[in-house]
């Protein structure tokens, strides 16, 4: 969970050049000079300023704006994640205030869509492979026979990232991605062990605190009061309950396809058709109308 967040922060920070999260810079380019690799990306010193040649991971100002506009215009089902629109700063072309679950949503679904029209194809392909890997290990069903192939694929994915990203990008968190498949093999499915539900509920409990000197007492009293109100509202009509809102689909009629295709309902359908033919004799021959 936290590995996914840190990797997502590194990718987003490097692509959009977010201060504090960007893995590229003069120090990273000097590392290339000391290692003697990627000579075309080494810093070029001028009289007044130092020029850093654009690498495969660098986006132009227009491309950054395009990526941010893609995130800004994305819509997801209700309750799927937080509103990504509120995390995008179009003025600065950045993503701000990303939480763990936001990074999870980006790596699982949204990031491959946002970068599909930017970056060079090899770099884009490597990032997309990494997103597909996180999507595979976080699934609710994982085929054990495919874990070995998945482990081999993530090694190849990291090797592809090493070809197109600076060495400073590969910190300990990126290295730990290699061991995630082994963790799934030993401990079981990931979604049984992650902390997203607990962290989201902690946000609810933090909202109960009105007196910061007595946080435990505030949480206890507010919780008891909410439970009492919830119990009372069940016995009152036309009163909405506290807490989790009722589903929007509640009260909507269910599809008739299941009812009309069962043998138990056929006698009632025939009886209804006889009533229709009797009540509207002039439409008896119009089977389409019936």
From TrEMBL:
<dbReference type="Pfam" id="PF13960">
    <property type="entry name" value="DUF4218"/>
</dbReference>
<feature type="domain" description="DUF4218">
    <location>
        <begin position="137"/>
        <end position="242"/>
    </location>
</feature>
<protein>
    <recommendedName>
        <fullName>DUF4218 domain-containing protein</fullName>
    </recommendedName>
</protein>
<dbReference type="InterPro" id="IPR025452">
    <property type="entry name" value="DUF4218"/>
</dbReference>
